[in-house]
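Minutes, project check-in

Agenda point 3 was the complex the collaborators sent over. CS summarized: three entities, 903 residues total, and the question is how they sit relative to each other. Sequences were read into the notes so everyone works from the same version.
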Amino acid sequence: MNHLLTMAELTEREILNILQDAQDFANGKQLKAKEQIFVANLFFENSTRTRFSFEVAEKRLGLEVLNFAAESSSVQKGETLYDTVKTLEAIGTKAVVIRHPQDQYFEKLKDRVSIPILNAGDGCGNHPTQSLLDLLTIQQEFHRFESLRIVIAGDVRHSRVARSNAQALRKLGAHVDFAGPEQWKDTSMGGCFASLDELLPQADVVMLLRVQHERHDRKAEIMGYLEKYGLTKEREQRMKPGSIIMHPAPINRGVEIADELIECERSRIFKQMENGVYVRMAVLKRALSNILGGVAHELLV
Amino acid sequence: MNHLLTMAELTEREILNILQDAQDFANGKQLKAKEQIFVANLFFENSTRTRFSFEVAEKRLGLEVLNFAAESSSVQKGETLYDTVKTLEAIGTKAVVIRHPQDQYFEKLKDRVSIPILNAGDGCGNHPTQSLLDLLTIQQEFHRFESLRIVIAGDVRHSRVARSNAQALRKLGAHVDFAGPEQWKDTSMGGCFASLDELLPQADVVMLLRVQHERHDRKAEIMGYLEKYGLTKEREQRMKPGSIIMHPAPINRGVEIADELIECERSRIFKQMENGVYVRMAVLKRALSNILGGVAHELLV
Amino acid sequence: MNHLLTMAELTEREILNILQDAQDFANGKQLKAKEQIFVANLFFENSTRTRFSFEVAEKRLGLEVLNFAAESSSVQKGETLYDTVKTLEAIGTKAVVIRHPQDQYFEKLKDRVSIPILNAGDGCGNHPTQSLLDLLTIQQEFHRFESLRIVIAGDVRHSRVARSNAQALRKLGAHVDFAGPEQWKDTSMGGCFASLDELLPQADVVMLLRVQHERHDRKAEIMGYLEKYGLTKEREQRMKPGSIIMHPAPINRGVEIADELIECERSRIFKQMENGVYVRMAVLKRALSNILGGVAHELLV
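CS then shared the predicted structure for the full assembly.
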């Protein structure tokens, strides 16, 4: 079963294969299902980027999309996630994309369902397609991961992105450090934890994390966040030549990053979103390889 | 006008024709619209199974689907159901699937609209496609309805499923009895009302009904429900050889049925869901026979 | 950039071109994208007609549709409209249809995004596709605009429709007057403001406006509205031969118009809705002319 649940479960080889497929799609390769294959998107948390990115990826692969919104489903009648997925399986769905607020929600599913699960984010846990699109964006820029210096800055403790990315980047040979407010420090992720000012001059990549208002109610702390912990115009000017800025979005403008930097020359923020589609096409191809392989026709444009 | 509103309006012949078409689809028959035909799904109540089952059925027939969610529509501005349906008709919709909390909502519509209405559940009233998928599941199992003994167990009084099924099963020659808590007894449906323990040993089919928390606020009663009225492992062992268990879902695990029975050998619960797609393809074919007939191509695989 | 934001920005020639394209579609002309082109519908306010009308128009043009519902998006995490649109652009969307409660929301977007925006209503401001479908309905009826007498009656002050229509109709040579309660009078729109009784006998078109409960909390005023300001059966009988009744819907039955007039011979209310699809096909064709022109095939049936 080709689930995609965490970055940890992927070998270096598997990661590089997915990135290669994604880059092929970025270069214009087309792959289209010739028969109807249904996939369902189950989003139990709000999302714009991830949800639409998956939907575009699915439709570009010629898949039929079922968009499941938790608020108008039988989940409201107390149905378990397992029963919901089994239902979708019973009516002919061949893969499910799931975002869910509960950490490791997939542990109760992964050995009991017979269709692949693509994890689109679990609580504060994993968000593997976000990591993969970050990796693709870095690879497009530097054509290697070895000895790159990556700084992940912000709410390290509550970030799905921080955890998944740190694991994967190190597996591929990069050096990962962290910056951010002391109370969001998470020593379980290794690396060095220092101030952005200290780490910034050596960084090839500064990955900013979102301040997640909706997960911890500390709005007061946002006052002054940019100056203390965020990427100001002044800090950006001390970045290395050729270094880049990334952010998983949605952005709190003027909090994690100064407004005028969002579309600056170093920013790859919108490039990341574009790459999200290619990465999701690649993981869907991987998940559906048994059935898509037989019925799709490939076209290298 | 080929509305599908209640099981009562269908003759035995019509029911058997729908089941035949559904079985053909189950066997792999394909029918695809060759032109764009729009259908709309109007769900004024939460649903997973029925909504997605209709959507999959529609897309397998090559229809264009409009998914209407009451919460973001002009219904919020006070628009009547009639005006909503007339609007959909005006913009080119050729059939509407409606689930609505009001019993017999369709009485105000059926003679005033010029497109077929497929009733996907009205309040505590009817749910004909659920009945049809139940019938298909029974027919696949026993290849007849005559003299089968069916026990419908649970919240008989508030169940759309109980009412529709009892009518249809008797029309086809089956014997239908009821079991459940005394306060949910409904003598208007005929048959015998007894304890599950009494009826179980003779039953070919035990159809469990959902305890509908959202319709009557009696959560206290759920305590001990399984032991008193539900299908326990012990009761299951007293069932006849070859007899089957059905449930319309969503299931309250450990309330109507013991957790470990949901996917047991006798259970047809997920088979019912699968059959839901074929039955809905069949009723859509019936509703759209005028236009689909002319533009679809059939393929018997 | 072929945005469609307001009626004011369209020249007489452009309006007539759009109407001509729309009439071609009404006559059965087909235009289908031969490649995948994604468009997104962003509705930040409830809508049935406009949203589904755009969706049907998009699908009839063979476009891939992304339906964005504000309530389950990152807008809930505080994302700006600009970032949402840039996100959709980054993942490959080629046009966005937006309804938003804020007047002139598009001012902050129009020069900063590189995909066309189709305004599906901004606050109390503009609603150009509603105006265009009104114009098409009038043109189908009278085959001219010059010297037609149009009366717009109702909540003139808060109506997107009143403002857009008055501008456009005058540009095309029609004479526009207003009627309605004194407190909803808006002298900034020119023309004469009088009672419906006074203006009705000369009118070729009576355009009724919706009493917008959700915009101003004056439910008390609805008591007696029909008799004082609405179109009663008695008033309808004093209308000119050949004159027509229009209403943008949703209708408050028995408030702006007597129930029995909604589908009377003079009423073009459902015709307006039908025309909404053709008009939206025409403005999508205009917005996407660069890419659709190259990849679509036209078929005049």
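Noted in discussion: Chain B touches chain C at residues 36, 38, 40, 64, 66-69, 71-80, 83-84, 86-93 (CB under 8 Å).
Follow-up: revisit at the next meeting once the mutant set is ready.
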